[in-house]
Amino acid sequence: MNRSIISLAGATAALAALTGAAVLTGAGDPAAAPVLTGAGDPAAAPVGSAARQPVQRSALVCPAPSASELASTTYTSFTPKGAQTGKQGTARLLPATGDASAKAKALAPLTEPGVPVTAKVEKADSPALIGTAEGGLAPGWSVQQTTVVGAGPGRAVLGTSCVAPDSEFWFPAASTAADRQDFLHLVNPDDLDAVVDVELFGKDGALKATTGDGVSVPSQGSTSILLSTLITEKVPDLTVHVTVRSGRVGAAVQAVDGKAGADWLPAAADPAPSLVFPGIPADATSVQLVAYATGQDDADLKVRLAAPTGSITPAGHETLHVKSGMTTTIELGDVTKGEAGSLLLTASDAHAAAPIVAALRVTRGTGAKQETAFLPATPKIDERATVADNRIKASTLSLVAPDKEAVVKVTTSAATDGGAPVSKNVTIKAGTTLAMEPPAPSSGKGAFAVTVEPVSGGPVYASRMLSLPLNGIPMFTIQPMPDDRGTVVVPKVQPDLTILDD
Q1: Of 11, 52, 147, 166, whose CB neighbour count within 10 A is largest?
Q2: Helix, strand or coil for residue 14?
Q3: Rounded CA gap, 436 and 426, in Å?
Q4: Cα–Cα distance, 129 to 189 (Å, whole number)
């Protein structure tokens, strides 16, 4: 009999490759070599068992905020308290530029978990940012980028959660219409250039792009592409598919509407036969759903709205048919009818389930005082989700439990100007949406973070709306709250270097 030797270093490298930005190490000294054991005795751990461990390194990228001379951008950095509280670490943001002098000073450096820090940038043409967090500040690290443009073209509140670099992104609800200027922003955090392909899909299928193949994104740099330069057609509703041939990038679409403000369109959740869109505002005057079927088969879906008291079927929009490889748009109007809600798409019983990606374009206000935000389909929260840059009486947290009653713990962090965190458990009834103002930090002022953790019951989906009205315009932005992936499953390996020969 022969027994192969298992390399712990090789197993660690393989796991790290699978998790992308998260580097897997144990709960010990961040400077120590990666380990795959749990908290117990490694020798006693059975082969094949696993435990969750906090990540030791996280990476985020933030797109260039705005070219407007009137733009003011705030960055809020935050790591929730957790298993690694008290351990040293670093978290900082640096300009995505080759200028060495610009990289000498970090933006919004974070020094401890549980307390957010902010930095404000007033100048136009501010660069994209590349961020890393290590040690005790890595698990659940989040950065919120909030830009206010008070007047002129693109006047709006534009908000986005800075994203982890990846190799594929879907953006339903983009546009090359005459009154839209949509820019695809790509940021490369690594030391080698990345190569990216960009595909566009309209209502009749793929659109031939002139320069979408082989887009180069410089190392530790960024590239922005005006979508209307890729195709000649003026297409009101597009799905943009970004795939990375080599390297990895962060991606987001900045959508500027000449009549209805602007905002960031985040990437949608991965293709799936059922999708959830948590947190349509109660006073939404128009909601537009844009969906794209990614597989070989058409998708047939049931449409429901999870309202505060239960799920209903929107009149005239009971079902949705999405043809394979094509973008479909439906106008839902003021579907919430004065009550906050969440849209639920589920596969029809009549046909086999087919994967789709989708996003909502949400409008508040009317006429010249309209403002737009985007809400893509959002993954459920597995262990914890966090959104930074909340403000007293300006933030609305939306929670939806599509299938089964759920209890979650909502924690408001200390504020940037002091105070103490506040936590409370809330119950979301099955098939309903709960919209709530997060509790304010105790005795604190300034920006704060909000963390949601499932306690019991069924799956929960969440988003946060930040409302900053100006001159009678209901300016706002919505950020989905996916799981923060602050922990990873690490196999417990029993060390055994024995070699047995026949």
Answers
A1: 147
A2: helix
A3: 10
A4: 9
Location of structure tokens 């809400």: 375
| Helix H or strand E encompassing 411 | strand 406-412
- Say if residue 109 is exposed, middle or buried (CB neighbours under 10 Å; 0-12, 13-18, 19+): middle
Instruction: Write the DSSP string, 58-78.
Output: EEEEE------TTEEEEEEEE
Contact 179, 235 (CB under 8 A): no
Task: Please check whether residue 60 is in contact with residue 107, taking contact to mean a CB–CB distance below 8 angstroms.
Answer: no
C-alpha–C-alpha distance, residues 414 and 112, integer Å: 12
What CA–CA distance (Å, rounded) separates 115 from 79? Answer: 7
By the 8 A CB rule, do 218 and 186 touch?
A: no
For residue 19, the 8-state DSSP code is H
How far is the C-alpha of 165 from the C-alpha of 130, rounded, in Å? 10
- How many Å apart are CA 425 and CA 410, to the nearest integer? 6
For residue 1, pLDDT over 90 is answered with no
Four-CA torsion 95, 373, 241, 481, nearest 10 degrees? 70
pLDDT digits (tens, 9 = 90+) for 33-80: 333 223 333 333 344 567 888 999 999 999 999 888 899 999 999 999
Instruction: Encode 179-196: b = buried (16+ Cβ within 10 Å), e = exposed.
Output: ebbbbbbbbbbbeeebbb
Instruction: Give the H or E element holding residue 339.
Output: none
pLDDT cut 90: percent of the chain above it = 75
Instruction: DSSP letter for 42, please.
Output: G
Q: Which helix (H) or strand (E) holds 270?
A: none
How crowded is residue 47: how many other Cβ atoms within 10 Å of its Cβ? 10
349 CB-near residues (< 8 Å, 6+ apart)? none
**Looking at residue 344, what is its pLDDT?**
98
Compute the distance between CA of residue 45 and CA of residue 490 in angstroms, rounded to an integer.
12
**What region does 36 belong to: left with phi over 0, alpha with psi -120 to 50, or beta?**
alpha
Cβ atoms of 184 and 266 within 8 Å: the answer is: no
Distance CA 106, CA 110 (A): 10
Query: How open is the CA angle 250-198-128, to the nearest 5 degrees?
Result: 30
Q: Find where tokens 């403002």 sit.
A: 371
Rg (CA), the chain: 23
Task: Look at residue 45 in the predicted model and tell me its pLDDT.
Answer: 38
**Cα angle for residues 403, 363, 441 (degrees, 5° grid):** 65
